[in-house]
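Objective 1b: paired records.
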Amino acid sequence: MKTQTTPLLLLLGAVLAQAATAAVAPANDDACACCKAQAAPDAPGAYTATSIYLLDASFTDDSGRQTTLGSLRGRPVVLAMFFTSCGYACPLQVSDMQKILARLPSGVRERAAFVLVSFDAARDTPPSLAKYRAERSLGAQWTLLHGDNDGIRELAALLGVKYRQEADGAFSHSNILTVLNPRGEIAYQRVGLSGGVDATVAALVAACGQAPQPGAAGAPAGVP
């Protein structure tokens, strides 16, 4: 991993402080700023001090393509951590994410990214993630990511997600849906498995008013 311990701790403190003050604004059907915004190049210097995209970890998507979370810059994001063999909590979270996608105003829906990052570095390989995508009928707006144990651990810390692997290979974990604004800052988090769908929709619409500065060019790499 390129991220060093001290910078990671500073980033963790800044991100958790940002998450603690994240607010939700009412949803509306107006076209949002981020729906028309283009993503800036994946340059760490362009990120704010509380951006998750400062995490210098590499992931591989279910098509086998290497990417970073920074490739999502310029889009509102719903992100969850999961594992494909999960029999209860993860399927519920994914179902709620599908409900959120369906309830978004059309302009927001076209730009939003829905991201699943696996806890299971050993078993959730890109082919396993591709199989899960097909089983759950997850379309082009969904990004499924495999990382190494260090990257997974660092991302979980930034999101406030706690997890551990049990003796049978399954994972015990907290259930958190995170909304990121187009700069990669935490705008809202739903904790738990009940409710919060409408609040998450509202947070996504509100996040669209926090687009990157104009003048950026190019589409986000690795995300349709």
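Objective 1b, second protein:
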Amino acid sequence: MPAGARAYAGEKRRIEASEDCRPVPARADSPQECRSVAPLRGASDMITAMTHDGSNVRVHTDYLWFETARRQEIVRITDDVARIVEASGVREGMVLVSAMHITAGVYVNDWERGLIADIQEWLEHLAPARPDYRHHQTGEDNADAHLKRTILGHQVMLPITSGALDLGPWEQVFYAEFDGKRRKRVVVKVMGIA
């Protein structure tokens, strides 16, 4: 967030705007920033600020919701993430895609049925579903799901170039559910120059 800007508490976030653009005195450890920011009207999930060179820096937040039919499931979400990136208006930047539950993950790999089965088999080998985990002594029964999420990872950071996801030729984004059949979400936070 630019120096001199404040975020308001609660679900709706915006930045105060000043009348004019006065550069903040440059510090040795940071680039010069501008105090003038232009909040987007009517958007509770977007923050826009102007930098010293007139570029609009934008942060856009959206969510993907899941309730899988099976306990363990891999869901391709590349197109959903791409739509959120496009809607954000960010031209150059990064997008964070992060599972907000401790038994689900997000990863990037090839969209090939055999590889997806291999990943699931590999995770089951490393963290098999079994009753003797210490976590189960607390009344839970999903220790393997926690371990699988830890192995696979819970988030990815992806580049945005010319307003689109900049993925390699075979790269796709996946949501990995390890303890499903209940409502969960993934945060998609787009950050960059508009």
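Residues 1-44 have pLDDT under 50 and may be disordered. The domain at 60-193 is CATH 2.60.120.460 (Jelly Rolls).
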